[in-house]
Amino acid sequence: MQNQPAVIDLTQHNFNDVMQSAAQQPMVVTFFSPASPQSLEFTALLTRIAEQHNGAFLLLKVNCDTDMIVAQQFQVQSVPTTYLFKDGTPFDAFPGVLSEEELKVRLSALLPKEEELKFNLALDYLQAEDYHNALPLLKEAWELSDQKNSDIALLYAETYIAMKNADSAQQILNQIPLQDRDSRWQGLQAQIELMNNAANTPEIQQLQEDFKKSPRADIALKLALQLHQAGKNEEALKLLLSFLKHDLNVENGELKKEYLAILQALGTDPLANQYRRYIYSLLY
Length: 284
What we know:
Blueprint: E1 7-9, H1 15-21, E2 27-32, H2 37-52, E3 58-63, H3 68-73, E4 81-86, E5 89-95, H4 100-107, H5 114-127, H6 131-144, H7 150-162, H8 166-174, H9 183-199, H10 202-213, H11 217-229, H12 233-244, H13 254-266, H14 270-283
């Protein structure tokens, strides 16, 4: 609705067209009179809030002096009088003036929640396959929902899968309640299993066996590189960090270089922030 005006003058002439076209949109209908300064001020406040929210709801203004027929349809007895509509149905109405704070509380039932705004913005990024910018928005949206919105969680996990980060995706899927583990959850779980199977390459298996027999830094470096290429970033970072804790310049600084390269490749992934803090604590 952002391409439509946020505020419309509702009259007896456009009443049917406006009400039909905006039936599924959150609406506020307010009645005022130019003879009532109080109602004019309140209408101006509503107009400012509507414009600030850029189409999150449609404000319909009715001049009772020129459109008495519309006012009579709503049985308006005094100005200002305000109606709130959701899904084409009025669910709240109040006569008189409210303070800005009180008005925003009443309007909050119409406005999208902050997690919904972040979720929708993430969807825009995902359409452009911009996973790195979508990821922190999905993280914030999920946290704002107290990790209870499974639709957000599933998209969050999907984004990690698209970034070939099976471990982080699995952590999110594990936190989704049993009653919400539908066919979409099962499909994502199957994708993770395929990724894990594909990641278990002969090269990684051999290096893991070599490292088990001889846990040297040079083998750890080769293994970490293979793990990173397979999307096993946390496993790779953990392995490198176990050596860096004892010597930042081990293998002539090559382990630190690979560690930092993985962090850079992860971009805005929360995993990168976590492991960035670890290395900074060693550096400084």
